[in-house]
From TrEMBL:
Lineage of source species: Eukaryota, Metazoa, Chordata, Craniata, Vertebrata
Bilayer disposition of the protein: Multi-pass membrane protein
Region (Disordered): 415-442
Organism name: Ailuropoda melanoleuca (Giant panda)
Protein name in the entry: Prostaglandin D2 receptor 2
Coiled coil: none
Amino acid sequence: MLLEYQCDNSPFSCPTSPNPTPKHTHTHTLGRIAISSLSLTPLPPPAGCCAVLQCLLGGLPPGADCLQAWKPVLLLCPELTMSANVSLKLLCPVLEQMSRIQSHSNSSIRYMDHASVLLHGLASLLGLLENGLILFVVGCRMRQTVVTTWVLHLALSDLLAAATLPFFTYFLAVGHSWELGTAFCKLHSSIFFLNMFASGFLLSAISLDRCLQVARPVWAQNHRTVAAAHRVCLALWALAVLNTVPYFVFRDTIPRQDGRIMCYYNVLLLNPGPDRDATCNSRQAALAVSKFLLAFVVPLAVIASSHAVVSVQLRHRGRRRPSRFVRLVAAVVTAFALCWGPYHVFSLLEARAHADPSLRPLVWRGLPFVTSLAFINSVVNPLLYVFTCPDVLHKLRRSLRSVLESVLLDDSELGGRSAQRARARSQDERGPLNRALSSTSG
């Protein structure tokens, strides 16, 4: 009896046991094992390859490890050729189903993909320019205070996130396929999560700093320094890196059946354990819940509590009008909640989808959109700095003019104007923005 099988459009057949009962008939992903870059010659393979087919189609007894069964057979099967390294990976059910989703050929969907590529390309360009200018203005053109230190590190976090947007745009442009390798997949995704944690931690620190200024003014006067703020920021960065490690470890490239490549979680990548379903459920839930709590709920709780304390203290003092910096923080926190909230909701739904397959289509449709929304947060923040604090725009214009003058003017003209620019800079540093940023009671 002949059992026919097709892999990578290369049909072949081999004798097998009577009355085979195939359990899986799809290509590449069988059970929870992904087989990438597999090509077979059309010649009838030897018995070793038939054993592989029986394994893949359910010929092994229940509980047998098909992944281990592959390895000795590969050595016995010269007709089994690999166009790339053999990749046999254990996959969770959700990821297995995702790998079988085919690319869309509908023209309207293609137009949406083109529009998405264009929008992400513009966002990446704006994000790099905006955050680079904010870093330049705040870091080089303003007097360094505790508050400018917070803003500087927030802008640095956003710049890192914006620096990954061009690669995400390329991923979209080539048909939602990751072509940049596993190592860069891990790095790219880690920066995304690093920005997520760092933004939440820094916003919490800013709110606590404001609370201490108002509730403990004497202590703040004695201990609140730029050097201390930098040390706190470095500690928060270290904490963000530590929380990013699991996402680096479990990130992987997974081949799809249609030839595309995913850059996604693979929680079975390390020590899958005897019960794969239980491992998938527990690890995916742990990742989703931990980032939801540490990067979203806890920061928002700290921010809300700090704001409540500040409001009560200022009301007792008869001060109700918020300062520019308070309005800036409120705007940045609102943008953070709106951009990252949907992402965390869908991450929790994705964890739930391991046990509830009915949620999977919703997760697959929604996750790309909410991920893009989270990326956009790094583009929105610089605009908030400018529109909430008008003096930033004034300084930005002066800084750009100074750069152009240094490029276009002759040395003699440049030397004649250097003293005038120095005097203007010293006046700007005493301008309304630094007074607003340094205010302890507004």
